[in-house]
C-alpha cells in the first residue's frame, strides 16, 4: 500500500534555530500534502495545505513566515520551523492522499525546542 | 472552536469485552467520518470510515455507527484485544473541502488482561 515517510522522527534544537521536516510519498505522487500539529492532550490541528508547484494554503492563526512549506516535487513536501522557540515544541505530522483515496500519514516528528 | 469532540480522554476495557468509543461533531457540513488509531511515536493509521449516507459500517471486529440527527458517531471494537490499546481519533470531513480533515482530541483505550 501507499506509504508516507516523514523524517526526522525526533528533533531537539536550541531556541532560535530553524528545523526542517521532510514528508515523502514513497509509491505515489501526491499533488497535495497536509501538515498537522498536535499539542499534548489536544487534537491534530491542520496547519496548512501544501500544493505541488504553488504556495501553501495556511489555516487561520498559522504564521506562514514562521512555518515555511515547500512542495517542490510530487513526492516531497518540507516544513521548516524558522527561528524555533519553546512554544513551537509539538508533534508535527504530514499526510497525503492518492487521488480518491483516504489519507496516509507520516510517522510524525516530535520537536523539542530548548 | 472544537468541531469534533471526544469527551472521554481515556477508556479501560477488559480483554474480550466490547470497547465503545464516542465522538460528537457540530458541523452539519461534515459528510464523511473516519477513525484513526495511533500508537506512541507513530503516525495515525486509518481504521474504518463511514459516509453520511450510511448509519453503520462494519469491518471485522470494528463497527462504526453514525447518528446524523444527534451528530454522533461511535466505534465499537468487539472482542477487544490487548493490541487494541492505543489512542483513537475520530475525524470528519466535508467532502466539498478537498480532504481537509478535522480531528477530535482522541481517546486512549487500554485493554486489560
Topology at a glance:
The complex is a heterodimer of chains A (114) and B (113).
Chain A: E1 4-7, E2 10-13, E3 19-25, E4 32-38, E5 45-51, E6 57-58, E7 67-73, E8 76-81, E9 90-97, E10 103-105, E11 109-113
Chain B: E1 4-5, E2 10-14, E3 19-25, E4 32-38, E5 45-51, E6 56-59, E7 62-67, E8 72-77, E9 86-93, E10 102-103, E11 107-112
Parallel strand pairs in B: 2-11
Antiparallel strand pairs in B: 1-3, 3-8, 4-5, 4-9, 6-7, 7-8, 9-10, 9-11
Helix percent of chain A reads: under 10%
* Structural classification of chain B: mainly beta
**Which descriptor suits the 3D outline of chain A?**
globular
Helical content of chain B, roughly?
A: under 10%
User: Percent of residues of chain B in beta strands?
Assistant: over 45%
Number of separate strands of chain B? 11
Tally of separate helices of chain B: 0
The overall average pLDDT of chain A, rounded, is 88
Straight-line distance between termini of chain A: 38 Å
Q: Describe the biggest sheet of chain A?
A: 7 strands, mixed
Low-confidence stretches of chain B: none
Secondary-structure element series of chain A: EEEEEEEEEEE
Biggest sheet features of chain B: 6 strands, mixed
**Radius of gyration of chain A over all CA atoms, rounded:** 13 Å
Shape of chain B: globular
Average pLDDT number of chain B: 91
Terminal-residue CA separation of chain B:
38 Å
* Gyration radius from CA atoms of chain B, angstroms: 13 Å
List the total number of helices of chain A: 0
Tell me the series of helices and strands of chain B, N- to C-terminal. EEEEEEEEEEE
Amino acid at each position: 500500500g501507499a506509504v508516507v515517510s516523514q523524517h526526522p522522527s525526533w528533533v531537539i534544537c536550541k531556541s532560535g534555530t530553524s528545523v526542517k521536516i521532510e514528508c515523502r510519498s514513497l509509491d505515489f505522487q501526491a499533488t497535495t500534502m497536509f501538515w498537522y500539529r498536535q499539542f499534548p492532550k489536544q487534537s491534530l490541528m491542520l496547519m496548512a495545505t501544501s500544493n505541488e508547484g504553488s504556495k501553501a494554503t495556511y489555516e487561520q492563526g498559522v504564521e506562514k513566515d514562521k512555518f515555511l512549506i515547500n512542495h517542490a516535487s510530487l513526492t516531497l513536501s518540507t516544513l521548516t520551523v524558522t527561528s524555533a522557540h519553546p512554544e513551537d515544541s509539538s508533534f508535527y505530522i504530514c499526510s497525503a492522499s492518492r487521488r480518491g483515496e483516504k489519507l496516509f500519514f507520516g510517522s510524525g516528528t516530535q520537536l523539542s525546542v530548548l | 472552536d472544537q468541531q469534533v469532540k471526544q469527551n472521554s480522554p481515556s477508556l479501560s476495557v477488559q480483554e474480550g469485552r466490547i470497547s465503545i468509543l464516542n465522538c460528537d461533531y457540530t458541523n452539519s457540513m461534515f459528510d464523511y467520518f473516519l477513525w484513526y488509531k495511533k500508537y506512541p511515536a507513530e503516525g495515525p493509521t486509518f481504521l474504518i470510515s463511514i459516509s453520511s449516507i450510511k448509519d453503520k459500517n462494519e469491518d471485522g471486529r470494528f463497527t462504526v455507527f453514525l447518528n446524523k440527527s444527534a451528530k454522533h458517531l461511535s466505534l465499537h471494537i468487539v472482542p477487544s484485544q490487548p493490541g487494541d490499546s492505543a489512542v483513537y481519533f475520530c475525524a470528519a470531513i466535508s467532502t466539498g473541502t478537498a480532504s481537509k480533515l478535522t480531528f477530535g482530541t482522541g481517546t486512549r483505550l487500554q485493554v486489560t488482561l
